[in-house]
Design a protein that fits this description.
Blueprint: E1 9-16, H1 22-36, E2 41-46, H2 49-60, H3 63-66, E3 71-72, H4 76-83, E4 90-94, E5 115-119, E6 132-137, E7 143-149, H5 152-159, E8 164-169, H6 180-184, E9 187-191, H7 193-199, E10 204-209, H8 218-233, H9 238-253, H10 256-276, E11 280-285, H11 288-301, E12 315-318, H12 327-330, H13 336-347, E13 355-358, E14 371-377, H14 382-389, E15 401-406, H15 411-423, E16 432-433, H16 434-451, H17 465-480, H18 485-503, H19 507-511, H20 513-527, H21 538-541, H22 561-565, H23 577-584, H24 589-608, H25 612-630, H26 636-660, H27 664-673, H28 677-682, H29 685-702, H30 711-727, H31 735-748, H32 750-755
Parallel strand pairs: 1-8, 1-9, 2-4, 2-5, 3-4, 5-8, 10-15, 10-16, 11-13, 11-14, 12-13, 14-15
Antiparallel strand pairs: 6-7
Helix pairs in contact: 8-9, 10-11, 14-15, 16-18, 17-20, 18-20, 24-25, 24-26, 25-26, 27-29, 27-31, 29-30, 30-31
């Protein structure tokens, strides 16, 4: 186990799965510390400047919880000033600022015990308590001797020996010499992959090996093996061994022919995924040289993806370079601000930037939720690999999962990384083989096919366009005729589409593309009848999983239920005799019923914004009829008649308002005061009509845009309504109920009334 410094106080590790809101959890913990301890100093530490900026921005927006403004250390001297205080403060810094300027001991900055250090990415740079000897070099790089050094964690504890340390990480490590719990103590909380997926905080990650498509030559593999054996025999330092091996492997991985093959495969693979799953992707290369050359090869295949302007183009390389690196690399150099702009482009779903090539940047701490595919062509291990694959597990609309594509055979390394994860107490496999998605797709395909048992949908694949339209309509009618068919079908096809989107471009997925396309086409028609959900409409739910066949049949141009149902749209009224006759005689009775139900629902939503009493009565009639239909008390034909009667009630109410000479607002107040038998018996229609007109006028005179949230105005209006009801001889026993109904009606149309003043 790692040796701990004397006096170290361990608070415990808080483990959060990638993408589960770790930064916000840190804000919460820090807020509790600030409130609970007696004026503590909280130091938030990470190991990268961009992550330091990201965390600081998150905390800065949560000032209310912290009850003070956090401060970000600008440099080493500023950090020392921030920590040499008697009490208080929330400080942000990269751990590199704790490097001693000379020697191997960092000066003590504070002996206080009410200092809490929160380390983000606690699996990195939090070790090195034991000394090690390294080469000491001069400014020219020449080795001039040996020196003893420690890790940053030791220097941090030199500076703050009595602080309490709290670690956050998504990938804890438990090795003999590098052990996260040994440094920070036992786990305070574990939020593992299984929980995160179940809670909807992350999506599943699937793994696909493309070794069979693009592999190292047998000669190349042999050369690497021979090189390893030679390095073992020669008396080289570990650094020299690593350098020599890296150079040889980089040359093999980055050979001209292999880069060309990788480019072809990525373009074909990404294109196939984009057809069914609109999102973004990332390619991880071993070196900057390979990244630049891969960019050149991809843009040869897709020249339209290239642009010299960082604000344009579908493909970019994210890296830094110097003029001494040569023109190939230098043209891809980006500054901090430029990378920030590229990050914003990558996070913007509507931006044409779809694919980025990186070496080290953006592999941790970077979130583009719509990113669905990660191509790995770089040797990676342990927590670095675990962090990288988490780039594709972010939740995004209807994204079913992320896909990791392996060009180097990282399966063994991934398995090893997973074993560390499991040993640390985590449950759930970080990645699932793509074959599991294929198996799920085939299973769901069979379930959906069985829903069409007795309906020969196979005719669709040989039919012309007009016949296809007819078959889709017939299939839609067939599904609507099944017991709970619509709900079951929409659910199963959604599951099928999600599995298909992950499985593509697997050969078995390509083989069933036409069949999946037909099922999606029928689903698209059924969705036209679905009422819009709260805050999310049907189009948003279907933004990612695209239709894969015959787009003309399910085009966005098909925007109304009439086109979807193959019914001629009425010109004047939904209740014209011609329209009703067409519905009654329609070949597909279930589809015709859906059309009428959709029309009535939409019409009642409009009326509900104007007339509280009338719309409530009609909605209750509609719900009662549909309930009887679903309980099989009414047949499709009988419920059709019931819905037509409801439609006639709507027209009758419109005609009543016109005959009485009332506006929509006035008729709404008329129904509010005439909604009881006592009033109708005691007062004649003309008296109630006059009351409604006066109420409308008095509410209009006293309503303002924000009157519904001003209690004094509401109280005044209530008094006016009561006085008006008494003035017109409204039944005393019903005045309270009528007053409340009139006020509710007033609130519904408050905006229109105020604006019409």
């Amino acid at each position: 186990m790692a040796k701990q410094p004397k006096g170290d106080r361990k608070a415990g590790v808080v483990w959060h799965t990638q993408g589960s809101g770790k930064s916000l959890s840190m804000v919460f913990y820090t807020g509790k510390i600030v409130l609970a301890l007696n004026n503590p100093t909280v130091l938030v530490i990470t190991d990268r400047n961009d992550l330091d900026d990201q965390l600081f921005d998150t905390f800065a927006s949560s000032r209310q919880l912290l009850r003070q403004d956090p401060i970000q250390a600008k440099d080493r001297d500023h950090l020392k000033d921030l920590l040499r205080v008697a009490a208080g403060g929330v400080v942000f810094s990269a751990i590199q600022k704790f490097q001693p300027e000379e020697g191997n001991v960092y000066e003590e900055l504070s002996a206080r015990s009410n200092i809490v250090v929160i380390a983000d990415e606690a699996h990195r740079t939090q070790y090195g308590f034991s000394a090690k000897t390294v080469d000491e070099k001069n400014t020219t790089g020449e080795v001039i001797g040996k020196k003893v050094v420690y890790g940053f964690a030791k220097y941090l504890r030199d500076a703050l020996p009595h602080a309490t340390y709290l670690g956050f990480t998504g990938t804890p490590i438990e090795k003999t010499d590098v052990n996260t719990p040994a440094v920070f103590g036992n786990y305070v909380d574990i939020y593992d992959i299984t929980q995160a997926v179940e809670d909807g905080a992350t999506v599943r990650i699937f793994y696909e090996s493309r070794l069979a498509k693009v592999a190292l030559s047998e000669e190349g593999k042999k050369l690497i093996q021979e090189l390893d054996e030679e390095l073992e025999r020669d008396e080289l330092t570990e650094t020299q061994k690593a350098k020599a091996k890296w150079t040889k492997v980089e040359a093999l991985i980055g050979s001209e022919s292999r880069i060309r093959n990788i480019a072809k495969d990525i373009v074909a693979h990404f294109d196939a995924r984009q057809k069914v799953f609109a999102g973004k992707g990332m390619v991880v290369c071993m070196s900057r040289r390979i990244a630049a050359e891969l960019y050149a090869e991809i843009t040869k295949l897709r020249p339209e993806w290239h642009s010299d302007d960082l604000k344009k183009g579908a493909l970019k390389v994210v890296m830094t370079a110097a003029s001494s690196d040569g023109p190939l690399l230098a043209k891809h150099h980006t500054t901090k601000e430029q990378r920030k702009d590229l990050a914003e482009r990558m996070k913007d779903d509507t931006d044409p930037l779809k694919l980025v090539i990186v070496r080290d940047m953006w592999l941790t701490g970077f979130d583009a939720p719509s990113m669905h595919t990660l191509y790995i062509d770089k040797p990676m291990k342990g927590h670095n690999l675990m962090q990288a694959i988490a780039r594709v597990n972010r939740v995004y609309k209807d994204k079913p999962g992320g896909l990791v594509v392996d060009y180097l055979g990282i399966a063994a390394d991934l398995k090893e990384a997973v074993s560390f994860y499991s040993e640390a107490g985590g449950k759930g496999n970080p990645t699932l083989a793509q074959e599991q998605a294929v198996a799920l797709m085939l299973e769901k395909l069979e379930v959906v096919s069985n829903l069409f048992n007795g309906f020969a949908y196979e005719r669709y694949f040989e039919a012309d366009t007009s016949q296809k339209l007819s078959l889709i309509l017939a299939a839609e009618d067939y599904i609507l005729g099944l017991d709970d068919g619509k709900r079951r079908y929409l659910k199963e096809v959604t599951d099928l589409s999600q599995a298909y989107a992950i499985a593509i471009p697997h050969e078995q997925a390509i083989d069933v593309t036409d069949e999946v396309g037909f099922f999606q086409a029928v689903k698209a028609r059924l969705m036209k009848f679905e009422p819009h959900g709260e805050g999310r409409d049907n189009e948003e739910l279907e933004t990612t999983i695209r239709q894969v066949i015959d787009k003309a049949l399910v085009s966005d141009k098909v925007i109304d239920v009439f086109d979807a149902a193959g019914i001629k749209k009425p010109d004047i009224s939904i209740l014209s005799d011609e329209f009703i006759a067409e519905l009654k005689n329609h070949q597909h009775k279930n589809v015709a019923l859906e059309v009428l139900k959709k029309l009535l629902n939409d019409e009642l939503k409009v009326r509900a914004r104007k007339n509280l009493v009338e719309s409530k009565k009609l909605m209750e009639m509609l719900e009662a009829a549909l309930k009887k239909y679903h309980n099989k008390i009414l047949t499709a034909a009988e419920v059709m008649e019931a819905l037509i009667n409801i439609s006639k009630e709507m027209v009758a109410s419109d005609q009543t308002a016109q005959q009485m000479g009332l506006s929509d607002f006035e008729y709404a107040f008329y129904t509010a005061v005439a909604n009881n038998n006592s009033a109708k018996e005691l007062m004649e229609q003309d008296k109630l009509r006059e009351l409604a007109v006066v109420l409308t006028q008095r509410v209009r005179e006293n309503a303002t845009i924000d009157w519904t949230i001003k209690e004094n105005v509401k109280a005044k209006l209530k008094v006016i309504v009561k006085r008006t009801l008494r003035q017109y001889g409204y039944p005393p026993d019903m005045q309270l109920l009528a007053t409340e109904t009139v006020l509710k009606q007033s609130e519904m149309i408050a905006g229109e009334l105020a604006e019409s003043n």
